[in-house]
Amino acid sequence: MSRLLDDIDSPESLKALDIEQLKTLSDEIREFLIDNVSKTGGHLASNLGVVELTIALHYVYNSPWDKIIWDVGHQSYTHKILTGRKSLFPTLRKYGGMSGFPKRYESVHDCFETGHSSTSISAALGMARARDLKKEHYSVIAVIGDGSISGGMAFEALNDAGRSRNDLTVILNDNAMSIDKNVGGLALYLARLRSSPSYSKAKRDIKGVLSRIPYIGDSLVSGIEKLKNSFKYIFVPGMLFEELGFTYIGPIDGNNLDELIPVLRRVKNMKGPLLVHVVTVKGKGYKFSEENPERFHGIAPFDAENGHEETSPDMTYTKAFSNAMLSAGARDKRVVAITAAMKDGTGLGRFAEKYPDRFFDVGIAEQHAVTMAAGMAAAGLRPVVAIYSSFLQRAYDQIIHDVCMQDLPVVFAVDRAGLVGEDGPTHHGVFDISYLRAMPNMRVLAPKDGQELDKMLQFALYVDGPVAIRYPRGATCYERDAHKTDIDVMNWECLQFGTDVAILAVGHMVDIALNAAAILKTMGINAAVYNARCIKPLPSSALSDILLNTKRLVTIEDNIEKGGFGSGIAEFIFDNDIKGVDLDIIAMPDGFVPHGSVDKLLNQLKMTPQGIASRIYERINGNMTVRNRG
Question: To the nearest 10°, the Cα dihedral for 194, 199, 204, 205?
Fold first, then answer.
Protein backbone atom coordinates (compact mmCIF):
# COMPACT_ATOMS: atom_id res chain seq x y z
CA MET A 1 0.00 0.00 0.00
CA SER A 2 1.47 3.35 -1.05
CA ARG A 3 1.94 6.11 1.47
CA LEU A 4 1.89 9.87 1.05
CA LEU A 5 5.20 9.90 2.91
CA ASP A 6 6.87 7.93 0.13
CA ASP A 7 6.47 10.90 -2.22
CA ILE A 8 7.60 13.58 0.22
CA ASP A 9 11.24 14.49 -0.31
CA SER A 10 11.19 18.26 0.14
CA PRO A 11 9.01 21.05 1.57
CA GLU A 12 7.88 21.83 -1.98
CA SER A 13 6.33 18.38 -2.40
CA LEU A 14 4.53 18.91 0.91
CA LYS A 15 2.79 22.02 -0.41
CA ALA A 16 0.96 20.02 -3.06
CA LEU A 17 -1.19 18.33 -0.38
CA ASP A 18 -4.48 19.52 1.09
CA ILE A 19 -5.29 19.67 4.80
CA GLU A 20 -6.86 16.21 4.95
CA GLN A 21 -3.84 14.72 3.23
CA LEU A 22 -1.58 16.51 5.70
CA LYS A 23 -3.46 14.85 8.55
CA THR A 24 -2.89 11.46 6.95
CA LEU A 25 0.76 12.36 6.49
CA SER A 26 1.00 13.18 10.21
CA ASP A 27 -0.12 9.66 11.09
CA GLU A 28 2.34 8.14 8.64
CA ILE A 29 5.23 10.17 10.04
CA ARG A 30 4.41 9.01 13.58
CA GLU A 31 4.44 5.39 12.45
CA PHE A 32 7.74 6.04 10.67
CA LEU A 33 9.29 7.63 13.76
CA ILE A 34 8.20 4.86 16.13
CA ASP A 35 9.44 2.17 13.76
CA ASN A 36 12.84 3.77 13.21
CA VAL A 37 13.62 5.13 16.66
CA SER A 38 12.70 1.80 18.24
CA LYS A 39 15.62 0.33 16.27
CA THR A 40 18.20 3.10 16.61
CA GLY A 41 17.25 4.79 19.86
CA GLY A 42 16.92 8.55 20.07
CA HIS A 43 14.55 11.28 21.15
CA LEU A 44 11.03 10.00 20.56
CA ALA A 45 8.45 11.73 22.77
CA SER A 46 9.47 15.26 21.82
CA ASN A 47 9.40 14.41 18.11
CA LEU A 48 5.99 12.74 18.23
CA GLY A 49 4.62 15.89 19.81
CA VAL A 50 5.68 18.31 17.06
CA VAL A 51 4.67 16.41 13.93
CA GLU A 52 1.76 18.72 13.02
CA LEU A 53 3.67 21.84 14.04
CA THR A 54 6.60 20.89 11.82
CA ILE A 55 4.31 20.09 8.89
CA ALA A 56 2.49 23.40 9.31
CA LEU A 57 5.72 25.39 9.44
CA HIS A 58 7.04 23.85 6.23
CA TYR A 59 3.61 24.14 4.60
CA VAL A 60 3.33 27.87 5.29
CA TYR A 61 6.95 29.02 5.15
CA ASN A 62 9.53 28.45 2.43
CA SER A 63 12.62 26.78 3.85
CA PRO A 64 15.53 27.19 3.26
CA TRP A 65 14.81 30.79 2.21
CA ASP A 66 12.83 31.27 5.40
CA LYS A 67 14.90 30.26 8.43
CA ILE A 68 13.53 27.78 10.99
CA ILE A 69 15.69 27.33 14.11
CA TRP A 70 14.93 24.45 16.47
CA ASP A 71 15.90 25.10 20.08
CA VAL A 72 17.95 22.15 21.41
CA GLY A 73 17.12 20.40 18.13
CA HIS A 74 16.22 17.02 19.59
CA GLN A 75 12.70 17.54 18.20
CA SER A 76 13.82 18.06 14.58
CA TYR A 77 13.25 14.51 13.27
CA THR A 78 10.06 15.41 11.35
CA HIS A 79 11.91 18.43 9.97
CA LYS A 80 14.59 16.07 8.69
CA ILE A 81 11.99 13.78 7.14
CA LEU A 82 10.36 16.67 5.28
CA THR A 83 13.69 18.00 4.03
CA GLY A 84 14.78 14.90 2.16
CA ARG A 85 16.50 12.80 4.81
CA LYS A 86 14.04 10.02 5.62
CA SER A 87 16.24 7.44 3.88
CA LEU A 88 19.00 8.23 6.39
CA PHE A 89 16.97 7.30 9.48
CA PRO A 90 18.44 3.77 9.76
CA THR A 91 21.76 5.57 10.40
CA LEU A 92 20.32 7.96 13.01
CA ARG A 93 22.96 8.79 15.68
CA LYS A 94 25.31 6.12 14.33
CA TYR A 95 28.93 6.86 13.48
CA GLY A 96 29.05 8.45 10.04
CA GLY A 97 25.25 8.58 9.92
CA MET A 98 22.62 11.24 10.45
CA SER A 99 22.86 13.35 13.58
CA GLY A 100 20.03 13.51 16.09
CA PHE A 101 20.35 17.31 16.04
CA PRO A 102 20.33 19.97 13.28
CA LYS A 103 23.63 20.07 11.41
CA ARG A 104 24.48 22.64 8.76
CA TYR A 105 26.66 20.14 6.88
CA GLU A 106 23.67 17.81 6.53
CA SER A 107 21.23 20.15 4.82
CA VAL A 108 20.66 23.75 3.77
CA HIS A 109 17.41 23.49 5.73
CA ASP A 110 19.41 23.24 8.97
CA CYS A 111 20.24 26.93 9.13
CA PHE A 112 21.70 26.85 12.65
CA GLU A 113 23.18 24.07 14.75
CA THR A 114 21.77 23.47 18.22
CA GLY A 115 22.16 20.88 20.96
CA HIS A 116 21.89 22.81 24.21
CA SER A 117 18.77 24.69 25.23
CA SER A 118 17.65 28.32 25.23
CA THR A 119 19.80 29.49 22.27
CA SER A 120 17.28 29.69 19.42
CA ILE A 121 15.84 33.15 20.06
CA SER A 122 19.29 34.73 20.25
CA ALA A 123 20.33 33.04 17.00
CA ALA A 124 17.05 34.00 15.32
CA LEU A 125 17.39 37.63 16.34
CA GLY A 126 20.92 37.64 14.99
CA MET A 127 19.67 36.34 11.65
CA ALA A 128 16.81 38.83 11.59
CA ARG A 129 19.16 41.74 12.20
CA ALA A 130 21.57 40.47 9.55
CA ARG A 131 18.65 40.17 7.11
CA ASP A 132 17.54 43.73 7.77
CA LEU A 133 21.03 45.18 7.48
CA LYS A 134 21.45 43.41 4.13
CA LYS A 135 18.01 44.62 2.93
CA GLU A 136 16.82 41.05 2.40
CA HIS A 137 13.31 39.73 2.92
CA TYR A 138 12.61 36.40 4.56
CA SER A 139 10.99 35.11 7.71
CA VAL A 140 12.95 33.94 10.76
CA ILE A 141 11.26 31.51 13.15
CA ALA A 142 12.59 30.15 16.44
CA VAL A 143 10.85 27.06 17.83
CA ILE A 144 11.45 26.78 21.57
CA GLY A 145 9.91 24.51 24.20
CA ASP A 146 8.35 25.50 27.50
CA GLY A 147 11.35 23.99 29.29
CA SER A 148 13.96 25.75 27.19
CA ILE A 149 12.28 29.13 27.43
CA SER A 150 12.77 28.98 31.19
CA GLY A 151 16.53 29.28 30.63
CA GLY A 152 18.03 32.67 31.40
CA MET A 153 19.53 33.10 27.95
CA ALA A 154 16.06 32.84 26.39
CA PHE A 155 14.80 35.68 28.58
CA GLU A 156 17.83 37.79 27.69
CA ALA A 157 16.99 37.27 24.04
CA LEU A 158 13.28 37.97 24.54
CA ASN A 159 14.13 41.21 26.32
CA ASP A 160 16.38 42.34 23.46
CA ALA A 161 14.13 41.12 20.65
CA GLY A 162 11.02 42.75 22.11
CA ARG A 163 12.56 46.20 22.02
CA SER A 164 14.25 45.66 18.68
CA ARG A 165 11.09 45.77 16.53
CA ASN A 166 12.75 43.42 14.04
CA ASP A 167 10.36 41.04 12.31
CA LEU A 168 10.80 37.79 14.20
CA THR A 169 8.50 34.91 15.15
CA VAL A 170 8.99 32.79 18.26
CA ILE A 171 6.97 29.57 18.39
CA LEU A 172 6.55 28.55 22.03
CA ASN A 173 5.96 24.79 21.96
CA ASP A 174 4.24 24.11 25.27
CA ASN A 175 3.90 20.38 25.86
CA ALA A 176 3.39 20.48 29.61
CA MET A 177 -0.18 21.77 29.85
CA SER A 178 -3.53 20.49 28.61
CA ILE A 179 -6.00 22.69 26.72
CA ASP A 180 -9.19 23.74 28.43
CA LYS A 181 -11.75 23.90 25.61
CA ASN A 182 -13.49 27.04 26.86
CA VAL A 183 -10.31 28.98 27.45
CA GLY A 184 -8.80 27.51 24.32
CA GLY A 185 -11.77 28.62 22.23
CA LEU A 186 -11.52 32.19 23.53
CA ALA A 187 -7.78 32.19 23.02
CA LEU A 188 -8.18 30.97 19.46
CA TYR A 189 -10.74 33.68 18.75
CA LEU A 190 -8.43 36.33 20.18
CA ALA A 191 -5.52 34.93 18.22
CA ARG A 192 -7.47 35.11 14.97
CA LEU A 193 -8.64 38.61 15.78
CA ARG A 194 -5.24 39.91 16.79
CA SER A 195 -3.45 38.30 13.85
CA SER A 196 -5.88 39.83 11.37
CA PRO A 197 -4.42 42.73 9.34
CA SER A 198 -7.78 44.49 9.50
CA TYR A 199 -7.65 44.45 13.32
CA SER A 200 -4.24 46.13 13.38
CA LYS A 201 -5.36 48.67 10.80
CA ALA A 202 -8.55 49.43 12.77
CA LYS A 203 -6.52 50.07 15.93
CA ARG A 204 -4.32 52.56 14.07
CA ASP A 205 -7.27 54.30 12.41
CA ILE A 206 -9.27 54.69 15.64
CA LYS A 207 -6.25 56.01 17.48
CA GLY A 208 -5.62 58.53 14.70
CA VAL A 209 -9.20 59.78 14.68
CA LEU A 210 -9.41 60.13 18.47
CA SER A 211 -6.10 61.92 18.76
CA ARG A 212 -7.30 64.64 16.36
CA ILE A 213 -10.24 65.65 18.60
CA PRO A 214 -9.41 69.14 19.97
CA TYR A 215 -8.42 69.42 23.64
CA ILE A 216 -9.50 65.94 24.72
CA GLY A 217 -8.18 63.69 21.95
CA ASP A 218 -4.89 62.71 23.57
CA SER A 219 -6.60 62.14 26.92
CA LEU A 220 -9.16 59.86 25.27
CA VAL A 221 -6.43 57.82 23.60
CA SER A 222 -4.51 57.53 26.87
CA GLY A 223 -7.63 56.54 28.81
CA ILE A 224 -8.66 53.92 26.27
CA GLU A 225 -5.10 52.49 26.27
CA LYS A 226 -5.22 52.14 30.08
CA LEU A 227 -8.67 50.54 29.96
CA LYS A 228 -7.59 48.22 27.15
CA ASN A 229 -4.51 47.13 29.09
CA SER A 230 -6.57 46.48 32.21
CA PHE A 231 -8.90 44.17 30.29
CA LYS A 232 -5.95 42.47 28.62
CA TYR A 233 -4.38 41.65 31.98
CA ILE A 234 -7.65 39.99 33.01
CA PHE A 235 -8.62 38.19 29.83
CA VAL A 236 -5.62 37.85 27.54
CA PRO A 237 -2.90 35.26 28.28
CA GLY A 238 0.74 35.97 27.62
CA MET A 239 0.94 39.48 29.03
CA LEU A 240 4.51 38.84 30.11
CA PHE A 241 5.47 38.57 26.45
CA GLU A 242 3.34 41.59 25.56
CA GLU A 243 5.18 43.66 28.16
CA LEU A 244 8.49 42.53 26.68
CA GLY A 245 7.37 43.92 23.33
CA PHE A 246 6.00 40.82 21.61
CA THR A 247 2.58 40.42 20.09
CA TYR A 248 1.27 37.31 21.81
CA ILE A 249 -0.89 34.85 19.86
CA GLY A 250 -2.38 31.79 21.47
CA PRO A 251 -2.63 29.30 22.96
CA ILE A 252 -3.19 27.33 19.76
CA ASP A 253 -3.72 23.58 19.56
CA GLY A 254 -0.34 22.58 18.17
CA ASN A 255 -1.59 19.14 17.11
CA ASN A 256 -4.51 20.54 15.08
CA LEU A 257 -3.62 21.47 11.51
CA ASP A 258 -7.02 23.14 10.99
CA GLU A 259 -6.01 25.71 13.60
CA LEU A 260 -2.27 25.87 13.06
CA ILE A 261 -2.10 26.56 9.35
CA PRO A 262 -4.55 29.54 9.22
CA VAL A 263 -2.84 31.18 12.21
CA LEU A 264 0.65 30.73 10.77
CA ARG A 265 -0.50 32.15 7.45
CA ARG A 266 -1.67 35.30 9.22
CA VAL A 267 1.42 35.47 11.39
CA LYS A 268 3.67 35.28 8.33
CA ASN A 269 2.36 38.66 7.15
CA MET A 270 2.51 40.41 10.53
CA LYS A 271 5.26 42.82 11.55
CA GLY A 272 7.49 43.08 14.60
CA PRO A 273 8.35 40.48 17.23
CA LEU A 274 5.64 37.83 17.54
CA LEU A 275 5.20 34.96 19.98
CA VAL A 276 2.89 32.15 18.94
CA HIS A 277 2.01 29.89 21.85
CA VAL A 278 1.15 26.37 20.70
CA VAL A 279 0.18 23.56 23.03
CA THR A 280 1.22 20.05 22.01
CA VAL A 281 1.06 16.59 23.56
CA LYS A 282 4.51 15.16 24.17
CA GLY A 283 4.69 11.61 22.87
CA LYS A 284 1.41 12.00 20.94
CA GLY A 285 0.21 8.98 19.01
CA TYR A 286 2.16 6.33 20.89
CA LYS A 287 0.55 5.09 24.08
CA PHE A 288 3.73 4.30 25.98
CA SER A 289 5.39 7.65 25.29
CA GLU A 290 2.22 9.60 26.09
CA GLU A 291 1.99 7.82 29.45
CA ASN A 292 5.69 8.22 30.22
CA PRO A 293 7.16 11.04 28.10
CA GLU A 294 10.20 11.43 30.36
CA ARG A 295 11.34 7.86 29.72
CA PHE A 296 10.80 8.26 25.99
CA HIS A 297 12.50 11.64 25.81
CA GLY A 298 15.87 10.08 25.04
CA ILE A 299 15.65 6.32 24.80
CA ALA A 300 17.77 3.36 23.76
CA PRO A 301 16.41 0.90 21.19
CA PHE A 302 13.13 -0.58 22.40
CA ASP A 303 10.36 -3.02 21.48
CA ALA A 304 7.75 -0.95 19.64
CA GLU A 305 5.03 -3.46 20.51
CA ASN A 306 5.34 -3.10 24.29
CA GLY A 307 7.62 -0.11 24.79
CA HIS A 308 10.21 -2.12 26.72
CA GLU A 309 13.69 -0.65 26.50
CA GLU A 310 16.88 -2.62 26.06
CA THR A 311 18.51 -1.94 29.42
CA SER A 312 21.47 -3.32 31.32
CA PRO A 313 21.20 -4.37 34.97
CA ASP A 314 24.85 -3.52 35.57
CA MET A 315 25.89 -0.94 38.13
CA THR A 316 26.71 2.41 36.52
CA TYR A 317 28.48 5.44 37.91
CA THR A 318 25.18 7.33 38.02
CA LYS A 319 23.61 4.56 40.12
CA ALA A 320 26.68 4.53 42.35
CA PHE A 321 26.38 8.29 42.82
CA SER A 322 22.69 7.86 43.66
CA ASN A 323 23.59 5.37 46.40
CA ALA A 324 26.39 7.59 47.69
CA MET A 325 24.06 10.60 47.92
CA LEU A 326 21.50 8.65 49.95
CA SER A 327 24.23 7.67 52.41
CA ALA A 328 25.58 11.23 52.53
CA GLY A 329 22.10 12.63 53.17
CA ALA A 330 21.62 10.24 56.06
CA ARG A 331 24.99 11.12 57.62
CA ASP A 332 24.72 14.90 57.43
CA LYS A 333 21.60 17.07 57.41
CA ARG A 334 23.59 19.89 55.86
CA VAL A 335 23.86 17.96 52.59
CA VAL A 336 21.56 19.32 49.88
CA ALA A 337 21.26 18.27 46.24
CA ILE A 338 20.84 20.62 43.27
CA THR A 339 20.27 19.83 39.62
CA ALA A 340 19.17 21.65 36.47
CA ALA A 341 16.16 19.78 35.05
CA MET A 342 17.98 16.43 35.22
CA LYS A 343 16.72 14.81 38.44
CA ASP A 344 16.51 11.27 37.10
CA GLY A 345 19.35 11.61 34.59
CA THR A 346 21.78 12.50 37.38
CA GLY A 347 20.47 9.80 39.72
CA LEU A 348 18.95 12.19 42.27
CA GLY A 349 15.42 10.79 42.06
CA ARG A 350 15.74 8.67 45.20
CA PHE A 351 17.38 11.50 47.16
CA ALA A 352 14.49 13.77 46.14
CA GLU A 353 11.96 11.22 47.40
CA LYS A 354 13.72 10.64 50.72
CA TYR A 355 14.78 14.23 51.39
CA PRO A 356 12.35 16.44 49.45
CA ASP A 357 13.17 19.51 51.55
CA ARG A 358 16.84 19.17 50.68
CA PHE A 359 16.42 18.65 46.93
CA PHE A 360 16.26 21.53 44.46
CA ASP A 361 15.59 21.25 40.73
CA VAL A 362 16.06 24.75 39.34
CA GLY A 363 15.06 23.93 35.76
CA ILE A 364 17.28 24.63 32.76
CA ALA A 365 19.35 27.19 34.63
CA GLU A 366 22.87 25.93 35.26
CA GLN A 367 24.23 29.39 36.06
CA HIS A 368 21.57 29.91 38.71
CA ALA A 369 22.13 26.41 40.10
CA VAL A 370 25.84 27.06 40.72
CA THR A 371 25.44 30.50 42.28
CA MET A 372 22.53 29.30 44.42
CA ALA A 373 24.79 26.49 45.63
CA ALA A 374 27.42 29.10 46.45
CA GLY A 375 24.86 30.98 48.51
CA MET A 376 23.89 27.81 50.34
CA ALA A 377 27.54 26.99 51.05
CA ALA A 378 28.17 30.50 52.34
CA ALA A 379 25.20 30.02 54.69
CA GLY A 380 26.58 26.80 56.14
CA LEU A 381 25.12 24.01 54.00
CA ARG A 382 26.98 21.39 51.97
CA PRO A 383 25.53 21.58 48.46
CA VAL A 384 26.12 18.93 45.78
CA VAL A 385 25.49 20.21 42.26
CA ALA A 386 24.82 17.29 39.89
CA ILE A 387 25.03 18.42 36.26
CA TYR A 388 26.19 16.78 33.04
CA SER A 389 29.71 17.76 31.99
CA SER A 390 28.71 19.52 28.76
CA PHE A 391 25.89 21.39 30.53
CA LEU A 392 28.17 22.55 33.33
CA GLN A 393 30.13 24.50 30.71
CA ARG A 394 27.22 26.95 30.69
CA ALA A 395 28.07 27.96 34.27
CA TYR A 396 31.79 28.52 33.70
CA ASP A 397 31.82 32.08 35.04
CA GLN A 398 29.72 31.20 38.08
CA ILE A 399 32.07 28.37 39.08
CA ILE A 400 35.05 30.74 38.91
CA HIS A 401 33.52 33.89 40.32
CA ASP A 402 30.94 32.68 42.82
CA VAL A 403 32.46 29.41 44.04
CA CYS A 404 36.23 29.24 43.47
CA MET A 405 37.02 32.88 44.15
CA GLN A 406 35.31 32.58 47.54
CA ASP A 407 36.72 29.08 48.09
CA LEU A 408 33.27 27.79 49.03
CA PRO A 409 32.53 24.12 49.83
CA VAL A 410 30.46 23.24 46.78
CA VAL A 411 30.68 19.70 45.36
CA PHE A 412 30.24 19.29 41.61
CA ALA A 413 29.06 15.82 40.56
CA VAL A 414 30.05 15.97 36.90
CA ASP A 415 28.07 13.20 35.20
CA ARG A 416 28.50 12.22 31.52
CA ALA A 417 32.20 13.11 31.57
CA GLY A 418 34.08 11.86 28.54
CA LEU A 419 32.43 10.52 25.40
CA VAL A 420 28.66 10.11 25.62
CA GLY A 421 28.15 8.44 22.26
CA GLU A 422 25.18 8.98 20.01
CA ASP A 423 24.27 12.54 21.09
CA GLY A 424 27.55 13.71 19.64
CA PRO A 425 29.73 16.81 19.97
CA THR A 426 27.21 19.02 21.78
CA HIS A 427 27.00 16.46 24.58
CA HIS A 428 30.48 14.90 24.80
CA GLY A 429 31.97 15.83 28.17
CA VAL A 430 35.52 16.20 26.94
CA PHE A 431 36.37 19.69 28.16
CA ASP A 432 35.72 19.54 31.91
CA ILE A 433 39.23 18.57 33.01
CA SER A 434 40.67 21.45 31.01
CA TYR A 435 38.30 24.13 32.27
CA LEU A 436 38.06 22.91 35.88
CA ARG A 437 41.80 22.30 36.25
CA ALA A 438 42.45 25.93 35.34
CA MET A 439 40.36 27.27 38.23
CA PRO A 440 42.15 28.28 41.45
CA ASN A 441 41.04 26.44 44.61
CA MET A 442 39.31 23.70 42.60
CA ARG A 443 40.10 20.05 43.31
CA VAL A 444 39.36 17.62 40.47
CA LEU A 445 38.85 13.90 41.10
CA ALA A 446 37.98 10.95 38.83
CA PRO A 447 36.92 7.57 40.29
CA LYS A 448 37.75 4.30 38.56
CA ASP A 449 34.74 2.57 40.15
CA GLY A 450 31.69 3.10 42.32
CA GLN A 451 33.51 2.49 45.57
CA GLU A 452 35.97 5.28 44.81
CA LEU A 453 33.11 7.57 43.83
CA ASP A 454 31.50 7.02 47.23
CA LYS A 455 34.78 7.72 49.04
CA MET A 456 35.36 10.83 46.95
CA LEU A 457 31.92 12.19 47.78
CA GLN A 458 32.53 11.55 51.49
CA PHE A 459 35.85 13.40 51.21
CA ALA A 460 34.43 16.28 49.18
CA LEU A 461 31.60 16.97 51.62
CA TYR A 462 34.05 17.71 54.42
CA VAL A 463 36.56 19.80 52.48
CA ASP A 464 36.46 23.56 52.99
CA GLY A 465 36.56 24.40 49.31
CA PRO A 466 35.20 23.33 45.91
CA VAL A 467 35.61 19.77 44.64
CA ALA A 468 34.63 18.35 41.25
CA ILE A 469 34.10 14.60 40.80
CA ARG A 470 33.88 13.58 37.15
CA TYR A 471 32.55 10.23 35.94
CA PRO A 472 31.20 8.79 32.68
CA ARG A 473 27.84 7.75 31.31
CA GLY A 474 26.73 4.17 31.17
CA ALA A 475 30.11 2.67 32.06
CA THR A 476 30.04 -0.32 34.37
CA CYS A 477 31.62 0.31 37.75
CA TYR A 478 33.81 -2.65 38.65
CA GLU A 479 34.36 -2.65 42.40
CA ARG A 480 37.51 -4.74 42.71
CA ASP A 481 37.62 -4.89 46.50
CA ALA A 482 34.31 -4.10 48.14
CA HIS A 483 35.92 -4.29 51.60
CA LYS A 484 38.75 -1.86 50.88
CA THR A 485 38.45 1.20 53.12
CA ASP A 486 41.90 2.82 53.00
CA ILE A 487 41.29 4.78 49.80
CA ASP A 488 43.33 7.98 49.71
CA VAL A 489 41.41 9.94 47.10
CA MET A 490 44.07 12.67 46.98
CA ASN A 491 46.77 10.20 45.99
CA TRP A 492 47.34 7.83 43.09
CA GLU A 493 47.03 4.05 43.20
CA CYS A 494 49.57 1.70 41.65
CA LEU A 495 47.58 -1.11 40.07
CA GLN A 496 50.50 -2.79 38.32
CA PHE A 497 54.25 -2.31 38.67
CA GLY A 498 56.57 -2.08 35.67
CA THR A 499 59.76 -0.32 34.62
CA ASP A 500 59.57 0.03 30.82
CA VAL A 501 56.77 2.61 30.83
CA ALA A 502 54.34 4.09 33.34
CA ILE A 503 50.77 4.52 32.19
CA LEU A 504 48.85 7.18 34.14
CA ALA A 505 45.14 6.73 33.48
CA VAL A 506 42.16 8.81 34.55
CA GLY A 507 38.79 7.44 35.70
CA HIS A 508 37.02 5.34 33.08
CA MET A 509 40.31 4.95 31.17
CA VAL A 510 41.91 2.87 33.95
CA ASP A 511 40.35 -0.38 32.72
CA ILE A 512 41.46 0.39 29.18
CA ALA A 513 44.99 1.07 30.46
CA LEU A 514 45.11 -2.26 32.32
CA ASN A 515 43.99 -4.12 29.20
CA ALA A 516 46.57 -2.23 27.12
CA ALA A 517 49.27 -3.21 29.64
CA ALA A 518 48.25 -6.86 29.32
CA ILE A 519 48.67 -6.64 25.54
CA LEU A 520 52.04 -4.91 25.97
CA LYS A 521 53.22 -7.74 28.19
CA THR A 522 52.73 -10.16 25.27
CA MET A 523 54.92 -7.79 23.24
CA GLY A 524 57.70 -7.93 25.81
CA ILE A 525 57.02 -4.55 27.42
CA ASN A 526 56.59 -4.31 31.18
CA ALA A 527 54.16 -1.43 31.84
CA ALA A 528 53.22 0.06 35.19
CA VAL A 529 49.63 1.26 35.49
CA TYR A 530 48.53 4.00 37.87
CA ASN A 531 45.00 5.05 38.75
CA ALA A 532 45.47 8.83 38.56
CA ARG A 533 42.29 9.52 40.49
CA CYS A 534 43.44 12.93 41.71
CA ILE A 535 43.80 15.18 38.69
CA LYS A 536 44.23 18.42 40.63
CA PRO A 537 46.24 18.94 42.70
CA LEU A 538 48.76 16.50 41.31
CA PRO A 539 50.29 14.30 44.06
CA SER A 540 53.83 15.54 43.50
CA SER A 541 55.51 12.95 45.73
CA ALA A 542 53.81 10.07 43.91
CA LEU A 543 54.75 11.50 40.52
CA SER A 544 58.34 12.05 41.63
CA ASP A 545 58.55 8.42 42.79
CA ILE A 546 57.23 7.21 39.45
CA LEU A 547 59.89 9.23 37.62
CA LEU A 548 62.58 7.56 39.72
CA ASN A 549 61.57 4.20 38.20
CA THR A 550 61.06 5.26 34.60
CA LYS A 551 61.40 8.37 32.49
CA ARG A 552 58.86 7.15 29.95
CA LEU A 553 55.31 8.29 30.78
CA VAL A 554 52.01 7.84 28.96
CA THR A 555 48.87 9.62 30.10
CA ILE A 556 45.38 8.46 29.06
CA GLU A 557 42.29 10.60 29.55
CA ASP A 558 38.81 10.96 28.05
CA ASN A 559 39.24 14.72 27.77
CA ILE A 560 40.56 17.03 25.10
CA GLU A 561 44.37 17.08 24.96
CA LYS A 562 44.70 20.86 25.31
CA GLY A 563 44.86 21.84 28.95
CA GLY A 564 43.93 18.38 30.22
CA PHE A 565 45.50 15.90 32.63
CA GLY A 566 48.44 15.20 30.33
CA SER A 567 49.11 18.92 30.06
CA GLY A 568 49.23 19.03 33.84
CA ILE A 569 51.93 16.34 33.85
CA ALA A 570 53.89 18.28 31.21
CA GLU A 571 53.64 21.43 33.35
CA PHE A 572 54.93 19.50 36.39
CA ILE A 573 57.94 18.23 34.42
CA PHE A 574 58.72 21.72 33.09
CA ASP A 575 58.15 23.52 36.41
CA ASN A 576 60.46 21.09 38.23
CA ASP A 577 63.08 21.13 35.44
CA ILE A 578 63.09 17.33 35.17
CA LYS A 579 65.26 16.26 32.24
CA GLY A 580 65.03 13.30 29.91
CA VAL A 581 61.34 12.52 30.33
CA ASP A 582 59.56 11.00 27.34
CA LEU A 583 55.89 11.96 27.71
CA ASP A 584 53.11 10.83 25.39
CA ILE A 585 49.64 12.31 25.94
CA ILE A 586 46.79 10.13 24.72
CA ALA A 587 43.60 12.16 24.73
CA MET A 588 40.87 13.55 22.51
CA PRO A 589 42.16 15.52 19.49
CA ASP A 590 41.98 19.28 19.15
CA GLY A 591 38.57 19.23 17.46
CA PHE A 592 35.00 18.11 17.95
CA VAL A 593 34.37 14.38 18.16
CA PRO A 594 31.37 13.26 16.06
CA HIS A 595 28.44 11.13 17.18
CA GLY A 596 28.51 7.35 17.32
CA SER A 597 28.74 4.59 19.89
CA VAL A 598 31.49 5.08 22.49
CA ASP A 599 33.22 1.87 21.40
CA LYS A 600 33.19 2.99 17.78
CA LEU A 601 34.54 6.42 18.65
CA LEU A 602 37.31 5.03 20.83
CA ASN A 603 38.27 2.71 18.00
CA GLN A 604 38.39 5.59 15.52
CA LEU A 605 40.48 7.62 17.96
CA LYS A 606 42.82 4.62 18.50
CA MET A 607 42.05 4.76 22.21
CA THR A 608 41.09 1.10 22.60
CA PRO A 609 43.47 -1.22 24.52
CA GLN A 610 44.88 -2.50 21.24
CA GLY A 611 45.27 0.99 19.79
CA ILE A 612 47.01 2.28 22.91
CA ALA A 613 49.26 -0.75 23.17
CA SER A 614 50.28 -0.39 19.52
CA ARG A 615 51.04 3.31 20.00
CA ILE A 616 53.19 2.66 23.07
CA TYR A 617 55.02 -0.25 21.39
CA GLU A 618 55.79 1.79 18.29
CA ARG A 619 56.95 4.74 20.35
CA ILE A 620 59.27 2.63 22.48
CA ASN A 621 60.69 0.92 19.42
CA GLY A 622 61.13 4.19 17.55
CA ASN A 623 58.93 3.27 14.62
CA MET A 624 57.08 6.54 14.55
CA THR A 625 57.90 10.21 14.94
CA VAL A 626 56.31 11.61 18.08
CA ARG A 627 56.70 14.63 20.29
CA ASN A 628 58.98 14.65 23.28
CA ARG A 629 57.36 16.90 25.84
CA GLY A 630 59.99 16.40 28.51
Answer: -160
